[in-house]
Amino acid sequence: MHLQDIYIYPIKSLGGIRVETANLEERGFQFDRRWMLVDHEGTFLSQRTFSKMALLQVEIFSDKMEVFEKNQLEMRLTIPFDCKTDGLIDVSIWEDTVKGLLIKKEINDWFSESLGMDCRLVLMPESTRRKLKPKYAVHGESVSFADAMPYLIIGQSSLDDLNMKLTDSVPMDRFRPNLVFNGGAPFEEDNWKKVKIGEAIFKVTKPCARCVMTTVDQLTGEKGKEPLRTLSTYRTFQNQVMFGQNMLLLEGKQVQVGDDVLPL
User: Fold this and answer.
1) Model confidence pLDDT, tens digit, residues 2-35
2) How far apart are CA 105 and CA 86, in angstroms?
3) What radius of gyration do the chain's Cα atoms show?
4) CA 231 from chain center: how many Å?
5) CA-to-CA separations, 256 to 60, 110, 151, 233, 247, in angstroms, rounded
6) % helix / strand / coil in the chain, to the nearest 5?
7) Do the strands 179-182 and 151-155 form a parallel or antiparallel pair, or are they unpaired?
8) Residue where a domain terminates, one of 86, 108, 131
9) Are 149 and 22 contained in the same domain?
10) Do 21 and 65 sit in the same domain of this protein?
11) What is the pLDDT of residues 99-140, one digit of tens each?
12) How many Å apart are CA 163 and CA 40, to the nearest integer?
């Protein structure tokens, strides 16, 4: 088995980026979900409620990010990594409330106009520690603005198995993984406790529960019923639909496409 794809999602719930190499950090890949859009109360926004967020794509450069609408490539927002901020505010993501750095008003105005709702962009500073639940952590690890865990892995065979059951196949971007591997049986990742990818070692913590976000077409922003409806017929465990495995980093600095994938 080999690592087929690596994805990062710099701004939570916006378009992801496929990369050939990624640096590993405790809270997730470098740049992965370090930014997040929130409403005026500081509550996180996602495609679950605002599917139009799928139409905003992010690109990463050495000193900045650029954001653009997928159907308006020329209308770009530049966000320097050293962008001025307006101080720390409380932001909420699921059960957690942490501090986020509020990005300056001009950038927030662009997002509000593009999405048609009042929203603000926040950055997770190094000082913010969003701790994993003790039952999953090994050494008190933290996570970014990701839903649950620092890393998410899915086997290509698992998606192939699902697509054989669908009338219209879906791409892997519906499931927003960080790592995709090829080879092995469908849902092989369900049986892993640890996995070595290149020289890095990860602990597999728990299955990833799926929601309506998997029904959002990442090219059009439109919602449907699949693949969640079909997944629920054979991947439901304890009233949750599972697809992919969450992980945390035990050791390693970097992974790259082509790395060997070896369950431990």
Assistant:
1) 999 999 999 999 999 999 999 999 999 999 999 9
2) 8
3) 18
4) 20
5) 17, 34, 15, 35, 17
6) 15, 45, 40
7) parallel
8) 131
9) yes
10) no
11) 999 999 999 999 999 999 999 999 999 999 999 999 999 999
12) 39
Structural domain of residue 190, as residue ranges?
A: 2-28+139-263
- What six digits make up the tokens of 96? 């957690």
CB 106 within 8 A of CB 93: no
How far is residue 158's CA from residue 161's CA, in Å, rounded to a whole number? 5
The tokens of 42 are what?
């500081």
Q: Is 252 left (phi over 0), alpha (psi -120 to 50) or beta?
A: left
Amino acid at 262: L
Give residue 36's identity as a one-letter amino acid code.
Answer: M
C-alpha distances out from residue 18 to 10, 57, 71, Å: 11, 12, 19
pTM of the model: 0.96
Number of domains in the chain: 2
Q: If DSSP codes are grouped into helix, strand and coil, which group holds residue 30?
A: coil
Can you point out the beta strands (E) in 9-165? 17-19, 21-25, 28-29, 35-38, 56-60, 64-69, 72-80, 85-93, 96-103, 120-123, 130-131, 142-143, 151-155
* Residue whose pair of structure tokens reads 């080999």 in the numeric block: 2
Contacts of 56-62 with C-beta under 8 Å, sequence gap 24+, read 56/11, 56/14, 56/15, 56/114, 56/115, 57/14, 57/15, 58/9, 58/10, 58/11, 58/14, 58/15, 58/16, 58/17, 59/17, 60/8, 60/10, 60/17, 60/31
